[in-house]
Amino acid sequence: MTRPFAVQRIDHVVLRVADLERSQAWYAQVLGCDVVRRRDDLELLHLRAGTSMIDLISVDGPLGSAGGAAAGSEARNVDHLCLRIGPFDEASLLRHLDACGVSTRGPASANFGAEGDGLSLYFRDPDGNTIELKGPSLPA
Asked: What residue stretches are annotated with the VOC domain (predicted)?
């Protein structure tokens, strides 16, 4: 069967969060994501993340409450979100994250992604969602 489409990139990911304003501030400060649309009636924020979007919905709002209780240490909504970034300068990234009060899971390591193997760093947002910042593919 021939598929009538080809996946091009992640369009958006929706994360359920406990505190919409706290998460919006965190994504703005740490990742530079700006709000491009706000839907107060749905307790929904659309954030620009490069050519993609990260949508945040309140776990207590009309959309978020459909997913049940907020995620906890034993119940996650998402394993992780990977954002392709450039440039990937580990020292600069670590300084920035540290200034934002964010600790990484460890040093940068090579991981496979859409463009092949490349360096990445992992850390958590205020709701415990894991974020991966991934650089360009490494030379073969």
From this structure: 9-136
How many domains does the structure of the chain reveal?
2
Alpha-carbon gap, residue 16 to 108, rounded angstroms: 27
- pLDDT higher for 47 or 128? 47
Q: Are 55 and 46 in contact (CB under 8 A)?
A: yes
What is the spatial distance between Cα 113 and Cα 48, in angstroms, rounded to a whole number?
21
CB 137 within 8 A of CB 118: yes
Range of the domain at 28: 10-67
Query: Which of 140, 100, 91, 139 is CA-nearest to residue 123?
Result: 100
Q: Answer yes or no: is 4 within a domain.
A: no
Same structural domain, 85 and 137: yes
Q: Are residues 60 and 100 in the same domain?
A: no
Phi then psi dihedrals of residue 16, to 5 deg: -85, 130
Q: Is residue 30 part of a domain?
A: yes
Beta-sheet pairing, 52-58 with 44-49: antiparallel
The answer to whether the CB of 22 falls within 8 A of the CB of 43 is no
pTM over 0.85: no
Q: Which residue has the tokens 């998402």?
A: 78
